[in-house]
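Repro case for the chain-ordering regression, as requested:
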Amino acid sequence: MMKKLVLTGAAGRLGSYLREPLSKLCEELVSTDIVDDIGTLYQGERYEKADLAQMSEIAPVIAGADMVVHFGAIGDERPFEVLLGPNFIGAYNVWEAAYQHGVRRVVYASSIHAVGMHKKQDFIGIDAPHRPDTFYGLAKCFAEDLASMYWDKRGLEAVCLRILSAAQVNNPRALGSWLSYDDLIQLVTRAIDTPTTGFSVIYGVSNNDRAPVDNHLASYLGYRPKDNAEQFAEQVLAEAPPADPTDAAQMYHGGPFASVPLGESGVASMNIINDKKEV
Amino acid sequence: MMKKLVLTGAAGRLGSYLREPLSKLCEELVSTDIVDDIGTLYQGERYEKADLAQMSEIAPVIAGADMVVHFGAIGDERPFEVLLGPNFIGAYNVWEAAYQHGVRRVVYASSIHAVGMHKKQDFIGIDAPHRPDTFYGLAKCFAEDLASMYWDKRGLEAVCLRILSAAQVNNPRALGSWLSYDDLIQLVTRAIDTPTTGFSVIYGVSNNDRAPVDNHLASYLGYRPKDNAEQFAEQVLAEAPPADPTDAAQMYHGGPFASVPLGESGVASMNIINDKKEV
Amino acid sequence: MMKKLVLTGAAGRLGSYLREPLSKLCEELVSTDIVDDIGTLYQGERYEKADLAQMSEIAPVIAGADMVVHFGAIGDERPFEVLLGPNFIGAYNVWEAAYQHGVRRVVYASSIHAVGMHKKQDFIGIDAPHRPDTFYGLAKCFAEDLASMYWDKRGLEAVCLRILSAAQVNNPRALGSWLSYDDLIQLVTRAIDTPTTGFSVIYGVSNNDRAPVDNHLASYLGYRPKDNAEQFAEQVLAEAPPADPTDAAQMYHGGPFASVPLGESGVASMNIINDKKEV
Amino acid sequence: MMKKLVLTGAAGRLGSYLREPLSKLCEELVSTDIVDDIGTLYQGERYEKADLAQMSEIAPVIAGADMVVHFGAIGDERPFEVLLGPNFIGAYNVWEAAYQHGVRRVVYASSIHAVGMHKKQDFIGIDAPHRPDTFYGLAKCFAEDLASMYWDKRGLEAVCLRILSAAQVNNPRALGSWLSYDDLIQLVTRAIDTPTTGFSVIYGVSNNDRAPVDNHLASYLGYRPKDNAEQFAEQVLAEAPPADPTDAAQMYHGGPFASVPLGESGVASMNIINDKKEV
Amino acid sequence: MMKKLVLTGAAGRLGSYLREPLSKLCEELVSTDIVDDIGTLYQGERYEKADLAQMSEIAPVIAGADMVVHFGAIGDERPFEVLLGPNFIGAYNVWEAAYQHGVRRVVYASSIHAVGMHKKQDFIGIDAPHRPDTFYGLAKCFAEDLASMYWDKRGLEAVCLRILSAAQVNNPRALGSWLSYDDLIQLVTRAIDTPTTGFSVIYGVSNNDRAPVDNHLASYLGYRPKDNAEQFAEQVLAEAPPADPTDAAQMYHGGPFASVPLGESGVASMNIINDKKEV
Amino acid sequence: MMKKLVLTGAAGRLGSYLREPLSKLCEELVSTDIVDDIGTLYQGERYEKADLAQMSEIAPVIAGADMVVHFGAIGDERPFEVLLGPNFIGAYNVWEAAYQHGVRRVVYASSIHAVGMHKKQDFIGIDAPHRPDTFYGLAKCFAEDLASMYWDKRGLEAVCLRILSAAQVNNPRALGSWLSYDDLIQLVTRAIDTPTTGFSVIYGVSNNDRAPVDNHLASYLGYRPKDNAEQFAEQVLAEAPPADPTDAAQMYHGGPFASVPLGESGVASMNIINDKKEV
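-- result from build under test --
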């Protein structure tokens, strides 16, 4: 059992679902984010406020950890200047601090948006070349390449989880891209308990009939999702407006991020309401 | 819900199984074939007799449709001259009429025989190059290429279903190639309800243990077959004569069509009896 | 040395350049086309008028030949109905007659337009899947698939030459796609003198710096083009109008055929003047 | 039903589990090994002692068989000189005798160690090039290449089962590599009852969540494992010592064989106790 | 002929060789760098001092240009914080300013160090996934991904030149990696005069016998290098110390950058002296 | 300059051409074979008689060498029992002795016959899976796999030269497969002077127009053949008997070895006369 595990972005939508299961995998879970308070803590959990973009704030939080689960970042498309601190420099700070302090592995919330401009008909594996759809996706590309380099040059392991859409299934794209919270938890758990991972990439998607990506090359991680968005298909398809055959939001893996102008929020069109876990 | 859906080949073996489920996906199902009568109609179904090889007959049937499910053709190997009208020109007529009348998508009964001369050991994906085994298969290649072009040049969507063998499981090859009627219906339904498809190809085969083809690249269509021919394996294998290791009918994906002389019926050896659905 | 060689399309633009070199590879060259007369004959050459679309006309011409060099067809985009006879049925007639009369090999003038809707950035090899840009290209796909089948099922060899543009270099695309007449002659000669070919496909393009296709997989045919369109680059690029980065005629292998509406001539925009060889 | 089936290595750990199921697939099962006695025989089973390395001993055992299931060999790493007789020459003797006596097919216990030096992150299919980790693995490479040649040149079919680890699940690697005895039996049965196989290769691994190899290209064999080592994951991972991220035994498919010096036993570190089946 | 062309990094080692040839391709060449003065100007050349890391300085320089040739950056490995401004933010500024001002294409000095951790035995094409060897290489990955996105989302063309080593041939690695100045000039010229490029990647390497990378997929750009480092082979090999078979600087494409610690200069070991072109 | 280089098979047809050039690459060339005498020695050359199949004879010859150029073996198809000693055990002895005595690299005369059952139309790269055509080819597969393992496990480098046909060009196959003596010498020189090679495979073939194999993946070795068998094409093709389109000797890479029965000489049909170099 690990002694210390760090979770960044603990106050975020996905982070809030990871706190409880992660707290059971270690003696001490240090949750961190930029808010003052994340509510009631789980057993073994401690909260430390820190700004990822400031090495002087995040490095002490990471010191002494066995692994870091790095989910902290702005979770939507914004202008480059806005994302530069938390999403780009923040990633550098996490890896550099992890290396300086002898952390063994970083588990990273990457995203389908790192490869979002591939067409859905180009069924993509984990070896698909980067093709970001937004500055948000560009930051994921940056962190994945950084992770690759820290493994190759410094032996710091990394598992990059290219999450598709961990949100409600309220549109046809989500019938393929859904990642349920239970499957998210399984995915993060596998990324932690696999004995050696080197630099690994894996898609975060449930066992949906219509899942448009291929995880075969990451089979050794043992991720076998259980949920299937097809249960929502009949209703979602009945309510969906007719699709334009040439609509980028339909044709590309990135969905609405593929059609949104660079720098503008792509979330609105996904109808994601705040369903952050209540403690 | 679609207003008008057209089914060609409605009197054929496979068409007869599609009439009922298709009638439930639209306000009006127009079934068409070259026979005078297809028996009792389902709710919302209308029958129109038309010869596919005559543009003047088939175009009016297609006019106003949202989609066409094109299963009409001679369903066996015949001399080229015999297939030219219904299987080649018929396909052209369907796509051209569909384009002229603003139809959105054609769902097409292609066939394993478009790629039947690949060896079974060369596990083929949906991107396998054409390698027809008969004039029958050559017509499927023609229609697939036509479909590709109408999408690339004119934005008319197409889903080509390369059906393996939608017939009884009474020989060892069918243990791998069987497509049950339920799975056929699921397959056609997915080809219709997927919001955008562009030009897609997918194999029509059940979830057989011994299925010899790969649909991974078409995962976004969400086809997940449920039936498995392995239930028939013990009896079929016990009754099968010893196989010749170099028999083309065993070694090639096309099965009996791979060994039959061009222009001669390949169905006899498959013991397909007429199990057309009774209404 | 072959006894009898048949050249179809002998009165065409490319055919007129092949008559002399082919006449030297055989005891008797039978040139055929639909015109009444092709002018002065070369030594050993005989002319027979025949309509490819009529089996009764073309079969007697082919009878007794060792090989057929099949260049006869309408050489531009036309409506499907116009191409059906000469380009589709004509190809069937040639292969079927060749098979019936024991011909060993068909050397076929296929075209880049069989794969013209691939993007130029998708550097394509001879194994690129069909993606026709016109009915003209669709006929090439049809003949290639037919050729594949006659080899697999009947042992009739075929070499399909996917010619890019055997015309003057008067536009930027031609800097990559040019096939000089000398290289055309080398290509056809290799297709004839290679001892065994099975079913082969090879691109017909000169040794241009900017050649956009890959013949590596056909290296065994020994085609090594000598000419290079780069000699025309400075002038052509200086005179060319600014390119639209999203123009299909620039982005796709098919060039102007990729942007022309189906059924309409694509040649006009290529400024091909009639430079048929004078005898 | 086959008349005569030969099982080599019948006294070995895996062979002892195959005797009973194989005895049911034929009229006569001839079990052979180098021990004097293999205990109580199953119905239809006969035992013949023979040294694989001696053609004069093994050929008479094989004469008259329909198929040979060849599991006989030294089952661990040893110096080349020690393996030369049983593992190399023994394989040659089996195939040559099989050919001389008209046997139809050899089902062979190959091993992951034929490709053991591929990294686990390089998810390998059945077409992965040889990369042996030991002399033991080198012998498997030799026999696979021999099998390929006997099929290509002499029409003798072969199915090479690259078994991962058919042993207890008592270490993290085995969570991916485990092959249960039930699945082994299914695998051998499929290798026998598939009508035609030519030369086939397939991995012998259960349906483990963490299975690190890919059998898709061998789907036509219909092997669908049922067991899953994940049932042992919690306990195994809890008891495992921390992994070194650069340990060859963790990073390579060969596991302990990848890190053991050539010629030295690799089994000790796998804690394989003798769990040979008792009759 | 272009009206205005911008060259960044004009005072750098490679930039100084590009000024003269670029000045001949346009009416006005605007050279820019952070030095006060770049010496005598060529005909049609104008110099403007600007800091790439400051949008307010670089944007006005770019305004009104047809294309930007972007060679400005720190040309060696440095700590991330040092490269952040010129190499990361500078690239963003160039693309964003180019987009805002309607520039058609950016020609970018990328580097082999974007993929430097691939093994030399893994012959890499232009589609090799990113695998940076340094923060310097990571910045190249960032800019390539940025370029891909600006093309996909905004239609701004880019040609990324992955330069190997444009320096003297004084070590064995350079026998493969050398890019002569003449070939560099040809490469940049092709990147400019090719009519449409979309997003393209190409290796910058001469026609060396030992060149370790593959430009086939970029053949349409028409780059055909003329120089060959083999002329230096005899002397270089005679003077080279014996190689360690496992030395990263020998085994990886990145050469000395593959073995240098992150953040430390990798140039020293390459014996690159300042051979900047004198005007 | 190397101190000691060992050449096995020095009395053989190819070995006799290598003695002189190799003697110039080292202070001492130790030539070895099973004959008593190899005639006049070159400067710096010493001859030692040794039987490869006897470790006690070959090990002392190898002791102290920097590299071994291993060309010793029976150079034709023979029964397995005949090849076992010199071709199989001999290879093991060379690698094991090389390892025991700290030799850095083995340069090995492998052969196209290791992959001879691939069809010529399946243009093969150096990564083509083994598919031997004879026991002779099987021994080459064995040695290549052995070489791979000694590199992976023990750091002993190897370059395996898959020679096609280093013999006179007197048949159509040789127009593609010819390796001139000059190109052979260049190939062996590159295999020696490349600083690090790990485990490498490369085809030994001249720059023939009709060369049927692909060396791109080994470009880093810098082998650029100069000779071209096309100079012999006119005469060879004129004299060749008509080819049977289905003749294995024509269709497969192995040529006559692909059609010869296992264990019988394949050389006779190649008309190889003894053109061993005279000293």
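Ordering looks correct now. The two ends of chain C are 24 Å apart (CA to CA).
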